[in-house]
């Protein structure tokens, strides 16, 4: 639009769009409080290139922000507000079932004694939060990993809670291709349960924490482990490293990192997700199976279909492998 044409209002809008925002206000949502601190006028925050997503909160119209950047204004606007439940879980990258992944609302909590957060697109909660149960991540205030997990006990079933817990405690050491640090330990989760023994869902959390293990990278890996144990099979070992002859590292180098293993029987279990359909991954899988065979290990490959239903086919696959290696049910 020619700035000399149009109505006075159109010219004013054109001028407001031309005033650049500070960089930190362009990367996601921001509050009017943050805009005031940056010296941005309320006239500028009313410009058409900004979207009002909730009272006192703006997002640049062309923003593709996600995660913490998309939600930071909600805690910046209110010193007592903390992201919780599903919103906090997403920032901790905890896997959620489909029904919660589809819930795009923002879960905000205040401590008991304060009013419940109420605004558009927000689900408000009152929680008995202790000081160490609220932390900051990428400029956003949210419940700690362990507290987030405990609160999820009010909306998840036991297996879903185990899956979320496995994600929180998962870690891989430096011998793994992609090392990973845990967000918290199983002992911290257990302490959180005992700290809030009267909370809703705590009985479920108490049962779930005893089933959580370190080393499961994905929900299917957790579901597989639970299915094997419930079928009466031995519990597999996670985070096991298979060593062998490596042309670069020499004898005794790490060569395989199975999703689960029975080291005494030399059985390696691999879950094949959708990414294994690609040709490059397919060729890597063949090389992996050859490496396992050369090292004297039997590889059991499990797919999504093998985990379906009340009696997963994966159980039969693993049972057959165990029997072939001398295992007998007691």
List keywords for this structure.
single chain; 3 domains; 330 residues; 18% strand; elongated; three-stranded antiparallel beta sheet
Residue share in helix: 25-40%
Query: Order of strands side by side in the largest beta sheet?
Result: 1-3-2
How many independent structural domains?
Answer: 3
Low-confidence stretches: none
Structural class computed from helices and strand pairing: alpha+beta
Sheet-strand content, in percent, reads 15-25%
Q: Describe the biggest sheet?
A: 3 strands, antiparallel
Task: Give me the Rg, rounded.
Answer: 25 Å
Number of strand elements: 13
Shape: elongated
Mean pLDDT: 88
Tell me the distance between the termini: 81 Å
| Order of secondary-structure elements | HEHHEEHEHHEEEEHHHHHEEEEHEH
Strand and helix map with partners:
Blueprint: H1 8-18, E1 30-31, H2 32-37, H3 42-45, E2 50-54, E3 57-60, H4 68-76, E4 82-83, H5 85-91, H6 98-101, E5 106-111, E6 122-127, E7 134-137, E8 140-143, H7 145-152, H8 158-169, H9 186-195, H10 202-209, H11 219-230, E9 242-246, E10 250-256, E11 260-262, E12 267-272, H12 279-294, E13 298-303, H13 313-324
Parallel strand pairs: 5-6, 12-13
Antiparallel strand pairs: 1-3, 2-3, 4-5, 7-8, 9-10, 11-12
Helix pairs in contact: 5-7, 7-8, 7-9, 8-10, 8-11, 9-10
Protein name: DUF559 domain-containing protein
């Amino acid at each position: 639009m020619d700035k000399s044409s149009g109505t006075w209002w159109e010219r004013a809008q054109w001028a407001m769009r031309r005033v650049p925002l500070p960089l930190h206000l362009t990367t996601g949502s921001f509050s009017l409080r943050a805009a005031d601190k940056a010296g941005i006028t309320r006239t500028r925050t009313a410009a058409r290139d900004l979207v009002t997503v909730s009272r006192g909160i703006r997002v640049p119209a062309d923003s593709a922000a996600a995660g913490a950047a998309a939600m930071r204004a909600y805690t910046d606007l209110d010193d007592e507000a903390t992201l919780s439940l599903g919103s906090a879980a997403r920032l901790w990258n905890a896997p959620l079932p489909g029904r919660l992944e589809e819930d795009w609302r923002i879960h905000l909590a205040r401590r008991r004694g304060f009013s419940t957060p109420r605004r558009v697109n927000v689900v408000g909660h009152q929680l008995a939060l202790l000081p160490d149960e609220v932390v900051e991540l990428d400029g956003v205030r949210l419940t700690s990993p362990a507290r987030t997990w405990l609160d999820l006990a009010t909306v998840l079933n036991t297996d879903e809670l185990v899956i979320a817990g496995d994600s929180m405690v998962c870690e891989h050491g430096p011998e793994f291709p992609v090392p990973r640090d845990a967000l918290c330990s199983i002992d911290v989760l257990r302490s959180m349960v005992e700290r809030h023994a009267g909370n809703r869902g705590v009985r479920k959390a108490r049962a779930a924490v005893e089933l959580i293990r370190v080393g499961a990278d994905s929900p299917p890996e957790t579901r597989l482990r639970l299915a094997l144990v419930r079928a009466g099979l031995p519990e597999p070992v996670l985070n096991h490293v298979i060593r062998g002859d490596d042309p670069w590292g020499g004898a005794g180098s790490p060569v395989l990192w199975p999703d689960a293993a029975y080291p005494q029987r030399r059985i390696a279990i691999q879950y094949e997700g959708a990414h294994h359909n690609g040709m490059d991954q397919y060729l890597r899988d063949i090389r992996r199976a050859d490496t396992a065979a050369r090292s004297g290990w039997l590889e059991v490959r499990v797919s999504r279909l093998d985990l379906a239903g009340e009696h997963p086919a994966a159980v039969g696959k693993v049972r057959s492998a165990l029997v072939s290696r001398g295992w007998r049910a007691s």
